[in-house]
């Protein structure tokens, strides 16, 4: 019993000391710390997502611009035309040049054929948690082209490139401190670009 009395006396003396200004500051810090951690990680994470969106915009725009300069005389071949595969390689190399994981886009086999009207879809997980999806429509005839939906009396062949990229949120690990059960693990960042065909 003597040991418990001694321990109780020590705890009471520390509790008495914490009842002053230092104790209030310690409690305020304990309450504010999770909020500060969530805020700091959130700023870092949303900044990373915004930066990735800009890189994906640039990759899609470069892919559409390159595809628009390619001929369309090979699109009726069976399988994936070399001009479409060239757009895929350009997008993959642009992502790699910007130090963005291409999820294995550069090494995956070409899709076996058309996935829609003049549309080819590359879908790969590679080293990503979910699939990166690259969709190339060449030529994309307006007004049925997705990027110019609603356009009327416009019949101009375009090249349309869309990228859907899986983004891993680090924010998910800390938001659960404040909101148990919240889930922001992975979401897709999607971007697209259209360029008028040159031939």
Outline the structure in words.
- It is a single chain.
- This protein has one domain.
- Helices cover 45% and strands 20% of the residues.
- Helix 2 packs antiparallel against helix 3 (82-97) and helix 2 (21-68) runs antiparallel to helix 4 (171-178).
- It has 199 residues and is an alpha+beta fold.
- The mean pLDDT is 80.
Please sum up the structure shown.
The chain is an alpha+beta fold and 199 residues long.
Question: In which order are the strands of the major sheet placed?
Answer: 1-2-3-4
Fraction in helix: 40-55%
- Please, how many domains? 1
Distance between the termini: 94 Å
Poorly predicted parts: none
Break the fold down into its secondary structure elements and pairings:
Elements: H1 2-18, H2 21-68, H3 82-97, E1 119-124, E2 132-141, E3 157-168, H4 171-178, E4 186-196
Antiparallel strand pairs: 1-2, 2-3, 3-4
Helix pairs in contact: 2-3, 2-4
Keywords:
alpha+beta, 20% strand, four-stranded antiparallel β-sheet, 199 residues, 45% helix, elongated, 4 helices, single chain
């Amino acid at each position: 019993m003597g040991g418990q009395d001694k321990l109780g006396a020590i705890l009471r003396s520390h509790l008495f000391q914490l009842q002053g200004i230092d104790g209030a500051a310690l409690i305020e810090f304990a309450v504010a710390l999770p909020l500060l951690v969530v805020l700091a990680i959130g700023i870092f994470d949303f900044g990373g997502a915004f930066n990735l969106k800009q890189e994906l915009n640039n990759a899609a725009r470069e892919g559409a611009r390159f595809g628009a300069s390619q001929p369309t005389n090979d699109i009726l071949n069976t399988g994936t035309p070399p001009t479409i595969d060239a757009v895929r390689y350009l997008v993959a190399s642009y992502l790699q040049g910007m130090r963005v994981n291409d999820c294995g886009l550069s090494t995956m086999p070409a899709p076996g054929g058309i996935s829609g009207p003049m549309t080819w879809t590359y879908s790969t997980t590679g080293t990503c948690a979910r699939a990166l999806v690259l969709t190339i429509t060449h030529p994309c005839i307006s007004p049925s082209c997705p990027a110019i939906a609603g356009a009327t009396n416009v019949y101009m062949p375009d090249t349309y490139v869309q990228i859907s990229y899986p983004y891993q949120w680090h924010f998910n690990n800390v938001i659960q401190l404040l909101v148990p059960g919240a889930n922001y693990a992975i979401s897709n960042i999607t971007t697209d670009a259209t360029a008028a065909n040159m031939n």
